Every structure is written in C-alpha cells, then in structure tokens.
TrEMBL record:
<keyword id="KW-0285">Flavoprotein</keyword>
<keyword id="KW-0816">Tricarboxylic acid cycle</keyword>
<keyword id="KW-0274">FAD</keyword>
<keyword id="KW-0560">Oxidoreductase</keyword>
<comment type="pathway">
    <text>Carbohydrate metabolism; tricarboxylic acid cycle; oxaloacetate from (S)-malate (quinone route): step 1/1.</text>
</comment>
<dbReference type="InterPro" id="IPR036188">
    <property type="entry name" value="FAD/NAD-bd_sf"/>
</dbReference>
<dbReference type="GO" id="GO:0008924">
    <property type="term" value="F:L-malate dehydrogenase (quinone) activity"/>
</dbReference>
<dbReference type="InterPro" id="IPR006231">
    <property type="entry name" value="MQO"/>
</dbReference>
<protein>
    <recommendedName>
        <fullName>Probable malate:quinone oxidoreductase</fullName>
        <ecNumber>1.1.5.4</ecNumber>
    </recommendedName>
</protein>
<dbReference type="Pfam" id="PF06039">
    <property type="entry name" value="Mqo"/>
</dbReference>
<comment type="similarity">
    <text>Belongs to the MQO family.</text>
</comment>
Amino acid sequence: MSATLASLLHRLEPTWSILLVEKEAELATESSNPWNNAGTGHSALCELNYTPEKNGKIDVSKAIKINEQFQISRQYWATLVENGELSNPSSFINPVPHMTFVRGAENVDFLRRRYELLKDEPLFADMEFTTEPAKIFEWAPALMVGRAEDEQVAATRVAGGTDVDFGALTRALVANAEKQGAEVRLSTRVEALRQQSNGIWQLRINDRAENKKQVVRGRFVFVGAGGGALPILQKAGFKEIRGYGGFPISGQFYRTDNPEVVAKHLAKVYGKASVGAPPMSVPHLDTRVVDGKPALMFGPYAGFSPKYLKKGSYLDLFTSLRFHNIIPMLAVAKDEFSLVTYLLSQLTASKKKKFKELKDFMPEAEMKDWRLITAGQRVQVMKKDAKRGGVLQMGTEVVSKADGTIAGLLGASPGASVAVPVMIDLLKKCFPEQFTAWEPKIREAIPSFGTSVNADPELTKQIEERTNKALGLNR
C-alpha cells in the first residue's frame, strides 16, 4: 500500500518530497512477502467468501466490486510497464487459472447457483462450470486422482486468473520511486509522532543500523505498516482511531517445491469453509510463482500469537489495549463464538489432522513432499458499533484524521490486490482540494477511472486485452 501511494503521489505531484520508513532491513518481509499471503490476485473469481448466502439468496455484489477494484490495479500496473517504470512483469504477475472446487450435493447446488448469477456479468463472462469429474480432471488432475467415483463434485474455472508476488511488486515500485527522488530508510523505526500547532506532523525515528535518532517533519503521514499500523496510529492520538482494536491471527500453510508434485497442478483452487467456520478459514490449494519458480501451497491453518507482525513483539496485543477499545473487543469476543471455536480447533489440531484437509483436496498427496511454513500475521479489525458494542471488520479499512493530514490502513483481505483503488480513495479523502485537478492524470494511467468496467462489456474486453498484453499474460 505504501509503495503504491508513493508511486501515485509522484505521478500527481512530482515536486513533492517523499520519505518511506521501513523498520526491517529489507522491504516486503511481512504480509507482502509471497510466502506470507495467498497471493491470489484477489479478483473474486474463485473466493466463495465474497459471495455469501443469506436466507437462501446468494449476494454477488461484493465479488463484482472486488473484481472492479482489481481491474483498476491491473490497469495501473500495465501503465507503469508501458512507461518503462516497471520492467519484467513476469517477476510479479503470472497467468494461473482460478478455480472453485466443492464436494457434496448442497455445495454443488450452491456453486451452480453462484455460477448462474455471475456468468452474465462481463467481468465473469469467461467462467466455466462443470459437475463432470472428467472435465475437472482436465482442469486440475490432482483434485481428482484417487477420489471416490461416486463423490458429488463441482467446479468453476476462469482461465484468465493470475498469481501475484506482492513482495516483488513492492520492491519494484519502491525502486522506481527512489529513481524519481523518493528517499527510503530501512532498519528505521517510528518511535513517536505528534502534530504541531501549524498542522505539520513531527516524527521521531530511530535508524537502528547506524544507532541514530532523528526528527523528521511532514505535511501528510500514511501508515501502511500492515499489522503494525494500529500501534503507530494510536501513538498519533487523533480521535478517529479511538475505539479501534486488533486481534492477531497467525497462520500456516503446507508448501511443496517438489517438481513432480508441482507439475500435477496448475491452478488456484478455493473450496468452501466448513459449517460455522469464519471466512478467513476458506481452504485453498494454490500454484505460486516466486522468483520464476512454481510451487504449491495449501491452507490456511490458523493459530494464535499476540504479535501484530511476524517479527513483532509478544506484547503487541496487550500494549494496544485502551479503555476506549476494550469494550468493542469484548463485544466481538462474545458475538463471534464461531471464530473462537475455529481458533481452538485449529490450535489443538494435530499435524496428521491438518494434512487430512490437504488430502481432501488432493487425495494422493504424501506428507513427505510437503512442509508446514509459517505465514504472515493477520490483524482482524474490531471497532465500535452503536447497537452491538463492537463488530469484527473482515475487510480492509482506511482510518484518517478529519483534517486529512494522517491516515492508516487496517485489516486484511483483499488487501494488496486492491491497493491502487484503495489509495486513490485515500487521496480523494485526504486531499479534497487537489483531487479534482488530479483526476485527468489518474485517468491517463487508469482509463476506466470513474466508470464501471462491469457495466460495459466492450470496455471490459478492451481493458482485458490491453492489460494482458502489457503485463505479458497471454503466454
């Protein structure tokens, strides 16, 4: 998010000075790291948690919105490639089909109804549906080999899906920002920040590599620190952050780099969460392409750590507690019993039980080929709610001060895939006086800006052809 914002700001205001501060010695070591996230290029083509069912009716509006947002990100990346600001797009985005795979009569019926609702939407026009085992075998053999012949199964597939390495993309965006004059400081921590009477923010930063402390000032501060954003925003002390809390959830994935196993599966396949499980638990078997090498990962398996970052402190959760956010967090704990139950079941699950979940997807998987890896920390946002006391926010949310001088991003999925539209919305909110003048420049980079791609089939086709060509996705 921060790298995207720096890129956008330089395009809109090339004379502004930009400083990026990163506490680690390298960029993108937390949630943007490819092994710390699912990397689906969240476009809602396969993720069932974006098409919830309530009272027998499936709502596809969120799926359409997220796909629209992803198209904005794709267009911006394509423009950067065309302008020579990003090179070698295959280093961060690769074609990988997106599939949904379900088992059992009830889930088959759900997937069929979901398909019927989406197939006529321009952004989902290429979606295929089948209940034929032979067809699913053709799409993803590993899902079917060794499976009982009488098991009811169904799948959807969109051949034009992608895998995105957001770590590589982050580093490329920051490298380009540096070429254009931005300053980047690694191994540097923000220790304190306060707003002066003239509206300027004063930040005390500590360069741990050189053991040097310094005070820097800026007219605008964005906190894109992943799970570490909440503590920094709390230090800023503006009233809009009051009532926000964060509950950290750690995760694990099974991963294999065995070429023989990897060659049997080329797809991102999402399933359906078990009854009572929260949306974040949706199982998926993903092809990942990192540093040009394909691999497979399956998960997620949830765990608990009080850290807000993978390299954070065990005190993160406790030091974030305030009088104003304890009640919302307790209210969520009371209402979200399914989340508590899910976490407990995951914490007590044996390695053998976890591997059985993988075998439900890939019947012939062998444990010797797979290893458990620790993923990034997810910090689920909790905030005040007038009726319930507190609610769990499943998506991402930008929190900003009323004067627009500071903002931060909280939450998780869909996250990085929608970084460009989220940062544009932030610019509109925090720079209302400048935004009208910026719109032509935004439209140059994102031709569909201000319009609905999904409402215009011809526009959808044009954007797809252009971005596929620029990003090298026709291979």
